[in-house]
Amino acid sequence: MSEALEKVSSNRAFEGEIIKYKFKSATLGGLSANFNLFIPPGASPTNKVPLLTYLAGLTCTEDNGAQKGAFLGPAASQGIAILFPDTSPRGAGIEGEDVDWDFGTGAGFYLNATNSKYAAYYNMYSHITLELPQIIETAGLPIDLKRQSVFGHSMGGHGALTLYLSSSTKQYRSASAFSPIANPTKCPWGEKAFSGYLQGGVEEAKEKYDATELISKSKDPVHILIDYASGTADNFYKQGQLLPENFLKAARDSGFDEFQVRVRSQEGYDHSYYFVSEKSFRSASTIDTGVVKISSFATDHIHFHANFLKA
Ligand SMILES: N[C@@H](CCC(=O)N[C@@H](CSC=O)C(=O)NCC(=O)O)C(=O)O
């Protein structure tokens, strides 16, 4: 059983509130875990709001998306709360967990470890799908947990897609991702993570933690949006760490059309949060010529989820 929440800080933002909490996490071996929660204006016990969970990438904490993602303004306008979890347990003290930036601390890969070396601490899958919603419920926060969706960036995009596609309880109504690691059993980051965290390595990961494998077996209708930077500016795309084309091909081969799985290639952007929080003037479809209005990719994704969270 996880212990009670402690409020670390609270800031007014977009007429709502962004709050940092910490608590002792049972899924993360009893370690102290942080998360940020944005609560939009107007949320109250009699007006509970839907929850969108944002999963960040390698080396990030619960702060990267909250501070750099440009999500809070559009979430405030849409009346959607955003949960920003951390990306791994912190301070487990496992030998080797702080050697590389793409494995261990800051690189939990949104899975439940089965290798006994990591299994007591590295359980980000349960932390996000079960423990954090339970903590929010127990604390009486004004969130309607029957309406949840999930999105993320890079490793967090992998997390968003796999949590969405693997959930037998259909916990999330929609998923979206910025530059996700879309076929991790076929890229160096994924191979390294799965070989380390999972007793059965990459083979074990195919069942539950690879979005391309999961979409190829999906039968139910899905609601997925992906934006990725397709040019030479995204080093990780160039290195073959992301492989969004594999995901797109598997989705189309399985019969999902562009209304169910929309994958948009965006030229010229790199892998940073400038991609997430900006949209170029070249994207004519988002320019309302009456009142010049340019939305960011972040806004697009919030609006995408609002379609399902507010239905
Ligand atoms: N330290 C690394 C670069 C790490 C990096 O770029 N992390 C990305 C996510 S990559 C995939 O999950 C990130 O989101 N960084 C945080 C940020 O605020 O930009 C290196 O040395 O290359």
Automatic annotation (TrEMBL):
Q: Which GO terms describe its molecular function?
A: carboxylic ester hydrolase activity; S-formylglutathione hydrolase activity
Q: Which UniProt keywords apply?
A: Hydrolase, Serine esterase
Instruction: Name the Enzyme Commission number(s) assigned to this protein.
Output: 3.1.2.12
Gene3D superfamilies, from UniProt? Answer: alpha/beta hydrolase
EC class, as a word, reads hydrolase
Where along the sequence do coiled-coil regions lie? none
Q: Which InterPro entries match?
A: AB_hydrolase_fold, Esterase-like, S-formylglutathione_hydrol
Q: In the UniProt entry, which residues are flagged as the active site?
A: 154, 234, 271
A biological process (GO) of this protein is:
formaldehyde catabolic process
* A single Gene Ontology CC term: cytosol
Per its UniProt record, what SUPFAM superfamilies does this chain match? alpha/beta-Hydrolases
Q: Which family does it belong to?
A: Belongs to the esterase D family.
PANTHER family from the entry?
S-FORMYLGLUTATHIONE HYDROLASE
The protein here is known as S-formylglutathione hydrolase
Taxonomic lineage is: Eukaryota, Fungi, Dikarya, Basidiomycota, Agaricomycotina
